[in-house]
Amino acid sequence: MVCFVFSNFLIGLREGLEAALVVGILVAYLVKIGRRDSLVPIWTGVVAAVAISLAFGAVLTFTSQSLSFKAQEAFAGFMSIIAVGFVTWMVFWMRRAAKSMKSELQSRVDAALAMGTSALVLTAFVAVAREGLETALFLWTNAQAAGSSAQPLIGAVLGLGAAVLLGYLIYRRAVAIDLAKFFTWTGLALIVVAAGVLAYGIHDLGEAGIVNFGRASAWDITSWYTASSWYGTLLKGVFNFSPNPTVLEVFVWWAYLVPTLFLFARGLLFAAGSPRPVEPPRVESLA
Questions:
Q1: Are the beta carbons of 171 and 92 closer than 8 angstroms?
Q2: What pLDDT does residue 25 have?
Q3: 245 in helix, strand or coil?
Q4: Is 278's pLDDT higher than 60?
Q5: For the chain, what is the domain count?
Q6: pLDDT by residue (tens digit) across 90-104?
Q7: 92 Cβ contact partners less than 8 Å away, ≥ 6 residues apart
Q8: Angle at CA 223, nearest 5°, toward 219 and 225?
Q9: Domain region containing 127
């Protein structure tokens, strides 16, 4: 299950760093304009967002466990599809919005300062909760595909911990990383992981009896394939590879992966060929 630890580590690191950067921008801006008295409402909103994200993950887990087998499969299948939709949207949104995220957040803080404490709490809550709820949903669905809850959870905790540490070091200007490249490469990796989650979601819907077409076996190599081997763990953890998938699962995996990677890469090439290139965000831009 090492690869499931890695895939959830990647999810936790990528999504957690987004949230950490948001918090860093909010805090740095308030310090810069001399409004340290407004940091408490910001942290109140951040804590509330983290709490509701954890509660959402718990609700997903307990809801699934209380259902019958077919209902569990249907629930997991639909949640997987929703999670892939959210993650795909966020990957593309982050690619476009990273350059303007700082100015937009600062504008929201200025407006919230004029409105009062409650507005500051709400601003921080909304900014972080969006990342937190998406992360909780995607981590949960990826853990369902793993068929194990402990090791994927370890990967998620390690990834989130690394994100918090890295976000703090960036805020303190102790490290400097090319955030544009970081989000580009992790975005590509998340698209591959999302393809596997989507295929497994279709598998769950088939087990629930909701999707009854394309159920013929695409291939069957179970006679010599060992799922617990190093290569089996690698293929399952990264690509959600199955030794006996259905035709529909294979089709969905490719139908999602190819056009999504194409659109993502095309956006990168378009940005690279822009006549007015924008410098990637650096640590200095957070203060």
A1: no
A2: 84
A3: coil
A4: no
A5: 1
A6: 888 877 766 666 777
A7: 263, 264, 267
A8: 80
A9: 2-286
